[in-house]
Write a structure and sequence with these properties.
4-stranded antiparallel β-sheet, elongated, single chain, 0% helix
């Protein structure tokens, strides 16, 4: 599940969920600066929140209710 946003300077942030048999569900981030080559994500991938357990609720929901946005008060802070 991914969510992208662009700030007022044209920089792009991409937040997304990761999970597999060896990784608890976690949230990561990458991005690119406005002047970077098109089609690339040049910001080093980093963990925003490392998972500590697995989904056990019967709904099985994970991440479909999340998003990345730019703070309207400054136009450049990603939330």
């Amino acid at each position: 599940m991914g969510s992208a946003a662009m700030d007022s300077a044209g920089n792009i942030g991409l937040g997304y969920s990761v999970s597999n048999s060896l990784t608890f569900p976690a949230i990561r981030f990458t991005g690119r600066l406005a002047g970077d080559p098109a089609g690339t994500m040049t910001v080093t991938e980093s963990d925003l929140r490392i998972g500590t357990g697995s989904q056990t609720h019967s709904s099985g929901r994970w991440g479909d209710y999340s998003m990345l946005a730019v703070d309207p008060s400054d136009g450049c802070t990603f939330w």
